[in-house]
Amino acid sequence: MQETIELGDVLVALTRKDVKHVHLTVHPPTGRVTLVAPHATRTEVARAYAITKLGWIREQRVKLNAQAREAPRQFVERESHYLWGRRYLMSVAEVNEKPLVLLGHRRMTLKVRPGSSAQKRAEVMHEWHKAQLHAVVPGLINKWQSKLGVRVSGYFLQRMKTKWGSCNPRKHHIRLNTELVKKPKDLLEYVVVHEMVHLLEPSHNERFLAMLDRHWPQWRESRTELNSLPLGSEAWAK
Q: Which pTM was predicted?
């Protein structure tokens, strides 16, 4: 059962679950606030915790309001698209062949069947994006498995509305947002490292930060750069 905690102009959706720790999240793009707490947490305790985080909540909302949004893509001629942080102009070729994407110097050619809808074109692009990530991610995982001394039993690619990545420490799985294909490769590597460190330490505690400091000392700069880049409009659907 979900409750709503009112803190002036801030509404916090409180949900109790089988968790050990409290998790407060400010969700893009509107700044919706959720608080997940252990089953035994009293409402007044959750309220007191949220009050201590009011400054942080407002700070996150300011950042979200200032963050650039990528206009919805139509997949048409001379539209801007990004791969690994580099901008390309799209060309569209309608041909009776299997749909594919070709990359040239500053130009990205999308081949689709005549009359293909914007949704179909988006699907072709998304599959191509995943193929680009599949070509890179295994190498990064192998590199960092030896450095971190951790094993990744599987990784998954998907559109994610609120995160760049996530992990399942119990199954040793990591998940990556397919939007990362549009960002510079070093930022993809940062997210991979971040999630793999979570396999060793699930929470964002001092031990986690110490490991991140040791293995990716520029993580604060990487995080700032990643969160300052335009967000894909499709990532915020619904």
A: 0.71
